[in-house]
Amino acid sequence: MLADIGLMALVVGFILAVYATAVSAWGGWRQEWRWVESARRATLLTVPFLTISVVIVTYSLFVMDFSLAYVVDVSSQAMSPFLRLTALWGGQSGSVLFWAWLMSGFVAAVLWRKWDRDRDLMPYFITVAMLTTAFFTGIVVFITNPFARLWHIPGTTELITAVFQPTGAVPYIPQDGQGLNPLLRHFGMIGHPPTTYLGFTGFVIPYAFAISALLTGKSRSDEWIRTSRRWTLVAWIFLSIGLVLGGRWAYDVLGWGGFWAWDPVENAMLMPWLTGTAFLHSVMMTEKRGMLKVWSVSLIILTYSLSLFGTFITRTGVISSVHSFSKSALGPVFFVFIGITFVASLWLLFKRLDTLKSEHELESFLSRESAFVLQNVLFLAITFVVFLGTVFPLLSELVTGTKITVGPPYFQKATGPLFAALVLLMGLAPLFAWRKQAASRLGRAALAPLVGSVVWAGIWGYTHRMHPASYFALWLVAFVVMLILFEFIKGIQARMKRGENPLIALAHLMGRNRRRYGGYIIHLGVVMIGLGFIGDAYFQQETQVALAQGESLTLGAYSLRFDNLEMYPGSDGREVLEATTSLFKNGEFVRTLKPRRDFFVVQQQPMTIPAVYPTPAEDVYVLLVGWEEIGFGASTFRMFLNPLISWTWTGGFVLILGTLIAAWPEGRKKRAYALAPGRLQPQPGLGGD
Amino acid sequence: MNKPRLLLALLAMVASLYTVSLVQAQNYPTDDEVNAIAKKLYCPVCPNTPLDVCETQACADWRAQIRDQLAEGWSEEQVMAYFVEQYGERVLAEPERSGFNSLIWILPIVAVALGLFVAVQVLRSWHRAQNTAAESAVDFVPDVPPETLVKIERELREIA
Amino acid sequence: MADLVTKPGELAGQEADVPNRFRLSTLVIFGFVFGLLALLGWGLVQVNSGQVDSGMAPDFTITSFEGETITLSDLRGQVVIINFWASWCPPCREEAPYLEATWRKYQEQGVVFIGVDYVDTEKEALAYIEEFDITYFNGPDLGTRISHDYRMDGVPETYYVAKNGELRGVKIGPLAPPELDEKIEELLAEQYP
């Protein structure tokens, strides 16, 4: 009964989405505003209907209504209530519905306020955004529907999954469900998929604005960028957090010792993030200097297509990955949609090239403009390398007939230098003035951080004596951090000259120039995240030894003693094998660590759960390995020393903080105008943004 | 043979066996040595899973096989070559740098070079456009004398 | 309202040479995009196409654990049963006794059984063969070439090859009596004019 309501709500939502797409396009074409209003209302209406659908699926999962095939697939008696709720996005159909729901929510949020400016952009904005919504909702309705049930053909062992009863079949309602994949039964389930999907769907908003601008010829002005700017930031921060949470989750449940394995699905998330970040910066230049217009539009088109491409890889198995959902009929549909939207967008861009005439003015090669161009080259180069590595196995199979694997060694070597250059640029670019940067001033500004970082890297290197390349990495990080800190110090000092104390100066500094200083904090966060990657690449140590009870292993300054072994039934149908170990540093007891091996009886799947002791300097990561029999006589333990990894998680928080500061609405304060002859534009109203 | 000699022969045999096993125990490859090689290999069966972390029985068998091979004195290259022969090239984490696969290394370099070249060209054309563009192409001219503008810009720079 | 399809705006004098450059880069970009789509489309087709179960059976040469070598095309005129298995595969263990029994039953009638060991370790494979007392030909699939040619997806899978070398279908999953007997009888009964 409830499921029927859910199905109806879903179908209504789909029809509304299609209606909104068609009618907004018609209204935009004919310039008849009442159609656009109707489309707007339809868009707002899709949200409650899709919400009903989502709520009913979630409720069915919670109460374990096994008449639904999806519930059988991802839910089971043994699962905790928390997990049953998050199972909404634990399987194919539920996660696509979730995606569609988030998408509709975003579009409705953008359309909620009455648009006074940019009304001309609205019709086609709705068309593009709702086309995407309709596509995903359509997939849910027709191809992978969470309201499908299981049917049994009497006399055979065949089970059919279908929404409507096939001829000759009877309903099949099992006693218990399969349950969520054990790897998904983790707290990270609440964080990673939602933030990732919010990131993907969020980037559809600036894309829709861009396409709308191109279609209406409004791309002549850069208003569309100003309108979509905050949405871009929102999408960006969610995608960034999604990446960090994904890494954290992998760290906690996979037992691989690291958090980024350059798996195709991970890369599929990284690529739209790279182009999205490039876009975020590129539009700054378009806004401030009216340059890189074509480039900005290209980047958002790429970001949109790469997001879809990511979803495509994850759900079709075209490129093999540990993350893949099981194969389905989604492949061809996605392929056609991606192909059409990408080609059509590019075609539109080429057709409207004349509306994107930039004001080409470059006074000096040493300027922020050049830095921005270089930054874009680097971002795109990294994206290209990641894309090449991800797609190359497929290409190689086509050309040579043999399958190959492109793994972390390639990606680390190929992207490492590019990332290093990018981080360096990130630190230096704020020092570059627009138009022309005097080299001497640059030298003076960078001198103190340079000296400080060389000294610091030298001391650290001397006391730790590690891999030579690591010196460079640490110097780079120190240099960039100091550059950013000096920006703050300079600003605070300038304000202190007027009699403000440091803390107030800092607050006012950030308040008056939120985008700039928020941006600096975001950069700081990025560097912190980068620290974790550096630690993982250069400093990681590991060892694996079979220990009898009472024996110890050593790694670095630490030693681990095997104390006890316990076996007990755990939550949601698993058998837990838990080892108690004692960690010592330099002979002194630090703490007790309990690595576990869980075995899920129903799925016949083992899961290794590490015991982690985090410190700012390094994580001690201990696994109970199942290589040999696990017993008091011999249990195999694997211990990793993961330096600097905690900085990645902290960096995530700093990223959020920075984005909040940068995106915070300005209010009614007067804003400083950037004086540049030719660019001075009267702002409507004092708010300005 | 008489009894004492038999006993002696047996003792010698046992002793030699013991020393052999002692030596073997010392030379027996550690888990770390196996992992060092397994890290560079991918599980032939599971999707995209490195061999040192793979949980399946098959992977355990493969790691045991590596250990046996190392115990017999095989070098890392020999073990890797054996894996490639048995299971195909996809078992390597890093593709061999020969033939078609060399493209995966060449293309990024080409792409970066191309990107930088295009970037420089674009910057140059902007510079040229700057020099040849008519000075009158402005949207909005502030009626402020240029000296004042320069002064204001300087002061703004110092504040920010 | 700007038309959806406008003529390109007038280009300023100094940009006269731009159209050519644009056209070349346009071509290159679209070429790249279409090439990429073609690659992905091909990949999609690959992934969605199942096992090779008709037409001529892909030829291969395989060396057994004992050192004996067989080439499939040499076996023309005989019914061939190709079974993909692995020692780490539980369903394979289910069908192993049945396979061996069927082999012994039809051995004299010229039916050939080829066991292809898919990504396995020699030690465990030999142990498996001994455990089930398997006497028919068994060899490792070197470089996974054979399984690749048959687009084999997962063990166990059994391919039926008729006397004229054509594939007559594939069984995905463990065989249970009397499936294999029936299939062999069918293949043996085939007559070619």
Characterize the structure shown.
The complex is a heterotrimer of chains A (689), B (160) and C (193). Chain A has 689 residues and is of the alpha+beta class. Helices cover 59% and strands 12% of the residues of chain A. Chain A contains 18 helices and 13 strands. In chain A, helix 15 (468-496) packs across helix 16, helix 16 crosses helix 17 (514-539) and helix 17 runs antiparallel to helix 18 (645-663). Chain A starts with a helix and ends in a 26-residue tail after the last helix. In chain A, 51% of the residues are buried. Chain B is mainly alpha-helical and 160 residues long. In chain B, helix 2 (31-38) packs across helix 3 (57-71). The longest helix of chain B has 30 residues, at 103-132. In chain C, 38% of the residues lie in helices and 17% in strands. Chain C has a 5-stranded mixed sheet, covered by helices on one side. A two-stranded antiparallel sheet of chain C has the order 1-2. The longest helix of chain C is centred in the N-terminal third of the chain and has 31 residues, at 18-48. Mean pLDDT of chain C is 85; it is low at 1-17.
Write out key terms for the chains shown.
heterotrimer, A: 689 residues, alpha+beta, six-stranded antiparallel sheet, four-stranded antiparallel sheet, disordered C terminus, B: 160 residues, mainly alpha, 6 helices
